[in-house]
Amino acid sequence: VQLQASGGGLVQAGGSLKLSCAASLRTFNKWTMGWFRQAPGEERQFVATINRNGGSIYYADSVEGRFTISRDNAKNMLYLQMNNLEPEDTAVYYCAAHGDGAMVAFRASEYDYWGQGTQVTVSS
After folding, report:
1. Residues contacting 55, CB < 8 A, separation 6+
2. CA angle at residue 95 from 70 to 11, to 5 degrees?
3. From 77's CA, which of 19, 56, 70, 122 has a CA 20 to 30 Å away?
4. Which helix (H) or strand (E) holds 90?
């Protein structure tokens, strides 16, 4: 199983980025997916989660209204559209897969597989 995150980069405050996560999961449409982020010296932090069919979506309060999680089960892809970025959003962003696709998951410990991370840097 491999999760490959991409799309990170350097952007000015107020700008946008779209992260992608390519999953080699054979039954991608049975997995709940999530995005987490980790800034230097801090613990990994929940960002957003989406269940197997996209019917349940939740966001961290800090990104609600600015970020949008989505998935394309036909392409085995997960996305995170990030708008109105703030310097506080600077972190390495990770995609992750959780085996119970019917339920969303908020804790890192609930996820079974992780991507390698992609760096997002927001300058002020």
Report:
1. none
2. 80
3. 122
4. none
What are 109's two structure tokens? 């410990």
For the stretch 31-89, pLDDT in tens is: 999 999 999 999 999 999 999 999 999 999 999 999 999 999 999 999 999 999 999 99
CA atoms of 120 and 124, how far apart (whole Å)? 13
Q: Pick from 1, 3, 2: which is nearest to 94 by CA?
A: 3
Buried b (16+ CB within 10 A) or exposed e, 14-40: eeebebbbbbebeebeebbbbbbbeee
Q: How far apart (Å, rounded) are the C-alpha atoms in residues 124 and 115?
A: 28
